[in-house]
Design goal:
single chain; 539 residues; mainly beta; Immunoglobulin-like; eight-stranded mixed beta sheet; five-stranded antiparallel beta sheet; 42% strand
Length: 539
C-alpha cells in the first residue's frame, strides 16, 4: 500500500513538473507560434487629460492602449505644432509599455491650441502594426482652434520629393519680417505625406500667415539656405479664406564664394568655390606679367577652378589677386616642391563610338597646341576620314569631329608631337581603335509637344535623375531624338524664361520662383530598332 501511494506521488510530482515547465515556457516573452497573425493596430482606451481638452494645465499626459506599444522613428514621424522648446520627454523609448507618457510640459503658451501628430510612430509590440495618424490635441485656453489648411508639395526640379518635408506657418505680428524663417520656429507645422505628396495643418486660429515648405537636414524648423530646400506662397495667406494651397520646393544657389587656394602640384593650384561660377580674373602680384603664362580650367568632378602657372622664376611663395565685379581678395600661399607631372592623355570613349558623339580626349595638363597633320583617322577599308578638331579651354578637352557610318571601324592615330601642353610636353604615339554599331541597335523618339512655350529645354532622364539626352528648342514643337540607347526614360521639359539655356532656380528673399519644370507622367520605353512616337500635352 505504501508502495502504491509512493508511486502515485512520484507520478504526480513528475506530472506537476511537466505542467510547470509548460507554464514557464508560456510565461516567456515572445511571439507565440500558430494562430492568426495580428493585423490590427493598437487602440487608445483612455487619455488623461482627455483628448481635445481645454484649459490644459497638466505637467504630463498619459495615453493608455489596449496592448503593449513601441515608438518607432519618433524623430521623423512626430510633429508637435506649435513647436515646444525644450522638447517634451516621450516614453516608452526602446521598450514596450501600454502607457504612452508625455512629460516636460512646463513651457506652454497661454491660449494656444497644441497638436501632437504621431504619424506612424506608434506600433504594437509584436507585429509592428502602426496606429496611423493618431493626434492628441489640447488647448491652454478655453477653446480649440479649428481652422485648417491643406494642399500638395512638389519638387521644382526633381521628379520625386523627399520624405523629410514639413510645411510651416508663421503668424504675422508686429515682429514679423521675411527673414524670420532663418531664425525662429513657426507657429504651426504640418508634415508632407510622401506617398501622396500632400499636407494638412489643423487646429489653426484665424489670422494672417506666411506659408512655406521646407526640406531640411537638421530638422530644427529653420531655413539653412546652404543645405535646405524651400518653397513659398507668393502672398500672405488669410485664414479661413485661404485653405487649399499648393507649393513647390527648390534649392537656392548660394552667392558665389571663392575659397583659399591649395597647391596641387608645382604648377597647379586649386580654388574651391560655392555657388554659381562667375567670370573672374586671377593674377599673381609677386610676378611681373611678362614672366609667366597661365591658364584656368575647371575640375570635372568637383566645384574647383585649377590655375596653371608656367614660369622660369623660382618662388618660395605666391600671392594671388582674385577679383570680379562682386569680389576682390588676396591670397598668399607658401610653396612646396612636388614631383613633376608628365602629360597623360586619356580618351572619353574606349571601344564603341555612338553616332551622336564626338571622339573626346582629356588630359591631366592643359592642352596648348594641336598639329592636325600629325593626326589621322582611317576606316576599316584603310580610307582616310576627314575630321575637324575643337578645344574646350575650361573643360580642357579636345573634340575630334567626323562623320560615322553604321558597323564601321576606325583607327585614330596621333603621331609624336600632335598635341603639346602648356609646359611644352608632347604626346608619344597614341593609337585608338573604335567601332560603331548598327542603327537597329538603337531606338528613335519622335516627341510631339502640345501647348509648348518657347524656348524650352527637352531632356531624357533616367530614374536617378541623370540627364542622358538633351535638346534646346526655340520654335520647334516636334523634337526628334535619334540613335538612343535602349532603355527606360522620363521626359523632362524646362521652360527657359531667361534664355540662358539652363535651369534657373528661385530665391526666397528676392521672391523669385524657379523656372517651370514639367515631367511626362509615365516612364517611356525606348526599344532597339523601334521608332517611338510620343505626344506630350504641356499644361
Amino acid at each position: 500500500m505504501r508502495y502504491f501511494v509512493s508511486k502515485q506521488r512520484k507520478m504526480f510530482n513528475r506530472f506537476s513538473l511537466f505542467i510547470l515547465i509548460i507554464v514557464m515556457g508560456c510565461a516567456n516573452r515572445g511571439t507565440p507560434t500558430g494562430g492568426e497573425i495580428d493585423t490590427e493596430p493598437p487602440s487608445v482606451l483612455k487619455a488623461s487629460p482627455e483628448n481635445f481638452s481645454t484649459n490644459f494645465n497638466s505637467a504630463e499626459i498619459e495615453i493608455l492602449f489596449d496592448e503593449y506599444i513601441r515608438l518607432s522613428k519618433l524623430q521623423t514621424e512626430l510633429i508637435i505644432s506649435p513647436p515646444i522648446n525644450p522638447l517634451p520627454t516621450i516614453m516608452p523609448m526602446g521598450s514596450a509599455d501600454k502607457v504612452l507618457n508625455i512629460s516636460g510640459l512646463d513651457s506652454l503658451i497661454e491660449n494656444t491650441t497644441y497638436s501632437f501628430q504621431f504619424g506612424e510612430s506608434i506600433e504594437d509590440n509584436n507585429e509592428r502594426n502602426p496606429l496611423t495618424n493618431y493626434r492628441y490635441v489640447f488647448s491652454t485656453g478655453d477653446y480649440i482652434d479649428s481652422l485648417k489648411i491643406k494642399g500638395s508639395v512638389k519638387d521644382a526640379f526633381d521628379r520625386e520629393i523627399s520624405e523629410n518635408i514639413n510645411v510651416l506657418l508663421y503668424e504675422i505680428d508686429s515682429l514679423f519680417n521675411d527673414s524670420i524663417v532663418y531664425k525662429q520656429k513657426p507657429k504651426y507645422v504640418g508634415k508632407v505625406i510622401d506617398s501622396t505628396a500632400t499636407y494638412s495643418i489643423q487646429n489653426i486660429k484665424q489670422g494672417k500667415y506666411l506659408l512655406i515648405a521646407l526640406e531640411e537636414e537638421n530638422k530644427d524648423y529653420t531655413f539653412q539656405s546652404s543645405n535646405d530646400k524651400i518653397g513659398f506662397y507668393e502672398n500672405l495667406i488669410n485664414l479661413p479664406e485661404d485653405s487649399i494651397i499648393d507649393l513647390s520646393i527648390f534649392k537656392e544657389i548660394p552667392n558665389f564664394k571663392l575659397a583659399k587656394p591649395r597647391q596641387k602640384s608645382n604648377t597647379s593650384f586649386a580654388f574651391g568655390f560655392t555657388g554659381e561660377l562667375e567670370p573672374l580674373e586671377i593674377n599673381i602680384i609677386n610676378l611681373d606679367s611678362v614672366n609667366y603664362t597661365s591658364r584656368i580650367t575647371r575640375e570635372k568632378k568637383s566645384d574647383s577652378l585649377i590655375y596653371w602657372l608656367k614660369t622660369n622664376q623660382k618662388l618660395d611663395s605666391i600671392v594671388f589677386n582674385v577679383y570680379n565685379e562682386k569680389i576682390s581678395d588676396t591670397f598668399k600661399l607658401n610653396l612646396k616642391t612636388k614631383e613633376k607631372d608628365s602629360l597623360v592623355i586619356k580618351p572619353e570613349q574606349s571601344k564603341t563610338l555612338k553616332f551622336n558623339d564626338n571622339f573626346l580626349l582629356n588630359a591631366n595638363l592643359p592642352f596648348s597646341e594641336l598639329e592636325k597633320n600629325k593626326i589621322s583617322i582611317v576606316n576599316k577599308d584603310s580610307l582616310n576620314i576627314e575630321f575637324e578638331t575643337k578645344l574646350d579651354l575650361i573643360k580642357n578637352q579636345y573634340s575630334i569631329i567626323f562623320e560615322k557610318a553604321e558597323e564601321e571601324e576606325f583607327t585614330i592615330r596621333l603621331l609624336p608631337g600632335a598635341i603639346t601642353d602648356l609646359f611644352e610636353n608632347e604626346n608619344d604615339t597614341l593609337l585608338y581603335k573604335l567601332k560603331t554599331r548598327k542603327f537597329d541597335d538603337y531606338g528613335n523618339l519622335d516627341l510631339n509637344l502640345i501647348n509648348a512655350k518657347f524656348p524650352i529645354i527637352v531632356q531624357l532622364v533616367l530614374s536617378s535623375g541623370e540627364v542622358k539626352y538633351e535638346k534646346y528648342e526655340t520654335k520647334n514643337s516636334k523634337v526628334n531624338f535619334e540613335n538612343i540607347d535602349p532603355g527606360k526614360y522620363y521626359i523632362k521639359i524646362i521652360y527657359d524664361q531667361n534664355e540662358d539655356k539652363k535651369f534657373s532656380t528661385g530665391n526666397y528673399l528676392k521672391k523669385i520662383f524657379p523656372e517651370k519644370v514639367i515631367y511626362y507622367p509615365d516612364e517611356i520605353d525606348v526599344r532597339a530598332g523601334w521608332d517611338l512616337i510620343q505626344e506630350f500635352i504641356l499644361k
